[in-house]
Amino acid sequence: MTIKIAPSILSADIMNLERDVRAADKAGADVFHIDLMDGNFVPNMSFSPSVVEGMRRVTDKPLDIHMMMQNPDAYIKPIVDAGASTILIHAESTQHIYRSIELVKSYGVRAGVVVNPGTPLETVKELFPIIDRILVMTVNPGFGGQKFIPGMTKKIQRLDQLRQTAADDNFDIEVDGGVNPETIRQCAKAGADIFVAGSYLFDGNDADLKGRIDNLRSLAAVEQ
């Protein structure tokens, strides 16, 4: 699998979002990760489909939409229309996650499932043949800047083993939460392919953004 670095715009400067997105694009971001929160599924609120639409106007890079929302089916079409490349839905957010994944794919958009730290992989195993991506939360969802949960590396490793033992399971493994030079090594060694990074990328000097993206990529490559 190809290593991809996905800056999370939740940690960007909201008052200068276009500036930060353009800077990260130029610095070598592979994907942009956009958190949509409704204040119900998680105790926080963030971006809407209009932000996705705005970002599509300033970057050609894939837009990875992480839906932290109840009743996700109601928002899938607006997010698709806004320019989403991949839509990721929490297994915990709906009783009908299989139907939600199929709805996303019916629009010709890549679909993925998200699992919280306390959610067993067994609850989403039936989705493996139809999904393009699994996002493993390495923090509790809802807020940026949290510390990585060390026990999640074993979960990533188990997921990679399951992926390798099934001929029809061909999904990416993405990780989100507390990704930095130390933790990306652990996640890459465990089998992750896509790494969402927020605070590490955006909390430093803008002039060194390319260096931080390159650093994460090289550290992950060493472990794969």
From TrEMBL:
It is an enzyme of class 5 (isomerase). Pathway: Carbohydrate degradation. InterPro entries: Aldolase_TIM (IPR013785), Ribul_P_3_epim (IPR026019), Ribul_P_3_epim-like (IPR000056), RibuloseP-bd_barrel (IPR011060). GO terms for cellular component: cytoplasm. Its cofactor is Mn(2+); Co(2+); a divalent metal cation; Zn(2+). It catalyses: D-ribulose 5-phosphate = D-xylulose 5-phosphate. Keywords: Carbohydrate metabolism, Cobalt, Isomerase, Manganese, Metal-binding, Zinc. PROSITE patterns: RIBUL_P_3_EPIMER_1 (PS01085), RIBUL_P_3_EPIMER_2 (PS01086). Its EC number is 5.1.3.1. Substrate binds at residues 8, 66, 142-145, 176-178, 198-199. Belongs to the ribulose-phosphate 3-epimerase family. Catalyzes the reversible epimerization of D-ribulose 5-phosphate to D-xylulose 5-phosphate. This is Ribulose-phosphate 3-epimerase. It comes from Companilactobacillus mindensis DSM 14500. The lineage of its organism: Bacteria, Bacillati, Bacillota, Bacilli, Lactobacillales.
